[in-house]
């Protein structure tokens, strides 16, 4: 593509959407950002061309995508809610816009697609037989994109582990460890000791996505890739990195009391929705990124300590008061902070 390439980003105020938008801009793309109220979210100097519109409005998305080479579909219902009613209609609007503009759709994926039969180390073509509602919806999204390739709509899906990093939202599991502007006195860990878990640092993931988008000539019409990100082999490494960043080697790590949380779930939407995804903390699932490495040569990777420190700084949680740019309050329920924790370990000690 000659000249300045244009990308339309849906979800530019979110964690991954914002990270991809900033990375695209750094790589010389012109970035349009769709939002229902641009005046409320526009930041001086962000350099984005803000466009008013709703991600469910096909006409608005199509108009905003005119002349774009890439549509970043990074919108999700907040707080894990209303996936069945909102997720697929939003994707249909992006598909119509891509059909009209000729743009490729970039979809940030995750591991919800996979059930037990995918195995502990699935590649991009592993069976997708999830046991959850959200996983079923994710599979439907990917199948819809695959079918659209038959009509000329190109797409790129990049799957990764749980997000963390500057600009992350309260939908991230990392928000159990640290909340914006609050001191970290202990860590709440969602899973049992000894079970591995996969994380994705937002700046690394965004760079990976933009690099892939820049290899258009090498991509099939329907392209899928896995990111390796950060693999916490036994559930201790993320907690230990947080403790090091805080300068508190004996920071307590407490297991989330999910039994009490289930009692509160009918009254707290966040708790109700995350119950479904707990299986990802009880069984190890590590994405195979060999296809990605074969194309790019290497996956962008920030060392864990540096990534965690940058995340905590952005949240304003470091003891020296260093903080990233203000991004507004983290919107998540505080119910987990009101139940009695069960001690699990110390962050600086091995958990076997």
Automatic annotation (TrEMBL):
Residue ranges constituting the NAD-dependent epimerase/dehydratase domain according to the UniProt record: 7-218
Chain coiled-coil ranges: none
Family matches, as InterPro entries: Epimerase_deHydtase, NAD(P)-bd_dom_sf, NAD(P)-dependent_oxidoreduct
GO cellular component terms, A-Z: cytoplasm
Region entry Disordered, spans: 323-352
GO MF, any single term: aldehyde dehydrogenase (NAD+) activity
UniProt protein name: NAD-dependent epimerase/dehydratase
